[in-house]
Amino acid sequence: MKTRKTLLAVFTVLTLISFRQSCTGQEKKDTLKVLLVGNSHTYTRNLPHVISIISEGTGTKLLTKKSTIGAASLSQHWRSERGLRTKEIIKDGNFDIVVLQERAMEPVNEPDTVLKYTRLFCDYIKKYGAKPYLYLIWARADAPQNQEIINQVYSQAAKENDAKIVPVGKAWALAKQMKPEITLHNPDGNHSSVIGACLTAYVFVSTITGELPEKLVDDFEMIDQFGETLQVLDVRSADVAFCKLVTEEISRKQ
Question: What is the model's pTM?
Answer without folding.
Answer: 0.88
